[in-house]
TrEMBL record:
Keyword check for Signal: no
Keyword Manganese: no
Signal peptide limits: none
Keyword line: DNA-binding, Transcription, Transcription regulation
Pfam annotation, one family: FCD
Superkingdom of the source species: Bacteria
Natural source organism: Streptomyces pakalii
Protein name in the entry: GntR family transcriptional regulator
Gene3D superfamilies: GntR ligand-binding domain-like (1.20.120.530), Winged helix-like DNA-binding domain superfamily/Winged helix DNA-binding domain (1.10.10.10)
Ranges of residues in domain HTH gntR-type: 8-75
């Protein structure tokens, strides 16, 4: 008898756990992913671990090196900027569609997220803000009904989790990004597709600037 997760469930669990570890900073670019350690940590079979690593390699989150095993793929700043440029085009599309197609329930949730984000910044609750930020982007994509864009964004965002973690940790970053997020929400609630697309573009343009800025420069800018 075994309680280990197997098959598709184990495969998905390991992949999601590695993504979460990257998002939280528990895994870093270049770090080796040892199969035995993953089996023990996540309570799955070796087969589930191997399949999950193959899935993550296909998403370019992990790289598998012959005779050396797997490691977290290193994404350069230049590649991160290019990924964000692609994200921008897709998220503008989703924001515009969301402004036209969002249901009453989705609009109500967007309004709540905006209020909760504002409160989180006021309270200095950065972890809460980060979770709301992620939910906001997910909800805009859901409301858009653009499934092809969602699939592409899932793959792009998977490669960006480490950069997203680093940006979220910069002093003053939530307060800086809050008005950008509120502008997206307001445009969708006002059923204004053009304004929603512009707001999404402005937000991702700022992300690109933050990616390109030296860490100390970005931190100083965010404090002012």
């Amino acid at each position: 008898m075994t309680d280990k997760l197997t098959g598709a469930a184990g495969r998905q669990y390991v992949a999601d756990a590695i993504r979460h570890a990257l998002r939280s900073g528990d895994l870093v670019p270049g770090q080796r992913l040892v199969e035995n350690d993953l089996v023990e940590s996540y309570g799955t079979t070796r087969g589930a671990v191997r399949e999950a690593l193959q899935d993550l390699a296909a998403e370019e989150i992990v790289e598998i090196i012959p005779r050396r095993g797997a490691r977290v793929r290193v994404v350069s700043v230049e590649e991160a900027v290019q990924i964000t440029e692609c994200r921008s085009a897709l998220e503008q599309l989703c924001a515009a569609h969301a402004a036209e197609r969002a249901s009453d329930a989705q609009r109500a949730e967007l309004g709540r997220i905006g209020k909760d984000m504002t409160r989180a910044v006021s309270d200095g609750a950065w972890d809460v803000y980060s979770g709301l930020n992620q939910r906001l982007h997910e909800l805009v994509i859901e409301a858009s009904g653009q499934e092809v864009a969602r699939r592409h964004l899932d793959r792009l965002n998977g490669r960006m989790v480490r950069f997203q973690f680093r940006l979220a940790q910069r002093p003053g970053r939530p307060a800086q990004s809050l008005p950008q997020h509120l502008a997206i929400i307001d445009a969708i609630l006002n059923t204004d597709p053009s304004a929603a697309a512009r707001a999404a573009a402005a937000h991702l343009d700022d992300v690109i600037q933050q990616l390109q800025a030296p860490t100390d420069t970005a931190a100083k800018k965010a404090r002012h």
